[in-house]
User: Fold this.
Amino acid sequence: MQRRFGFLASLLCYSFFLLITSGCGHSDQDHTHGETHEHDHAHGADHDHGDHHGHDHADHHGHDHEGEHGHDHEAGLSWGYAANNGPTHWAHLDHSFELCGTGLAQSPVDIAGAITQNLPAIRTHYKASAAVLKNNGHTIKVTLADGGTAELGGKIYELKEFHFHAQSEHSIDGAHTAMEVHLVHADEHDKLAYIGVMLREGAANAFLEALMAAAPRHAGLAIDAKDPIDATALLPVTLDYYSYSGSLTTPSCDEGVSWFVLQEAVTISAEGLQQFTNLYQNNRRPTQPLNGRVIVASAQPN
Ligand SMILES: [Zn+2]
Assistant:
């Protein structure tokens, strides 16, 4: 037992010497477009500082994309995943969340019947970057100051942040995995492209386990990663993918998001999974109807 603890401790020391900072007061180093609205003072979980995707993708409502908004100004009820504020309620919680109810190109989806095509390979050029780990009341989000780029569908995007869902939001032939990580990218016009990586319980994954161990326990808290984070560590060996046009999976459910869900999953240990689900046991939106959308695959799935 002691040996195992010692191993974990040294693992943590090696990759994540974290400097605990003064809560959420300063994770705003990367709101590149000055998107600093802090419309949510009632809930510690929600005063985010525009560090979501670090951009503003023609966001006329002045809310962000990973749903820090979530605030009903009359009732004071934030969006979430519980019985009274979960996905079936989102559209009614705030007028800017309407698309969550009326959108016809929503995410996530069940991936089935994908059409294999000759598609551009995903190439990533991620790099080690200063990062902020935040428990934002909806997930653990890792915002990167300068995380590098990826070529997705033949276009170049910048990696802004990544965050986690349990279980996976997408399913493949109806089957969910234990978790899914979303890598959020934006191009120079603030068009969004997400890579989804399925995480299944299995072999240890030092990067994920250290990250989960270091994640702030309390909603609203953010910490700086003392050492840089390279998101390459989140990727499987092969980058074959499914792709379709969808949306944010959290309010405001904005559409026009290009999705790239990787075919190969990565593993996370039972301990790492437990550490996340201790915080967020169910933060996935149910799959949404395709409404005629086509899912393509870059390779024949195994
Ligand atoms: Zn997500």
